[in-house]
Known about the structure:
Blueprint (H helix, E strand, L loop, with lengths): L4 E5 L14 H19 L3 H4 L2 E12 L9 E10 L3 E10 L4 E13 L4 E2 L4 H16 L37
Antiparallel strand pairs: 1-3, 2-5, 3-4, 4-5, 5-6
Amino acid sequence: MPQIIRTPIQKRFSDIDSFHHVNNVAQQMYFDVGKSDFFDRVLGREVLFAPTRIITAATETSYLAQIRLGDAIEVTTEVERIGNKSLTLLQRIIADDGSVRSESRSVMVAFDFDAQQSIPVPDHWRKALETERHAARSAPAEGEGDIPAVGLPLKRAERPAREEGRSPERKGRKT
């Protein structure tokens, strides 16, 4: 089983805003695609549709660099923490040059829809998630290159050129 689930993202023209980069709302949708792929591969599709399933309780996202329409990107997803009734996922949007463009943490809660309440993480979920988490911590991610450490600022070389695609009146001004 992979340590870090990598999900290629196909951008849509409608994801691009008037500044010619992927809007932050679209990036949240990319993280949702990564979550769905992660849970489908690790816990099975029923975790998204059965009476007992996983729901999002909180998200926190840092936008580190712009994503342009032509950038090839993927979302990486891994388990950062498993609690009694919740788990925390760490996700990153990574460009084909290896730079992290944004990262997000999501607190996901085990929820019984029939009883309308949170429940302890089921044992079979915990076992699969623990296996995934330990694999992610003990081996490098599949694919090329290492993923930069969480929360560290990107080096200038990892950032996209800021002047590309700017209109003459915007050149030299920071976004």
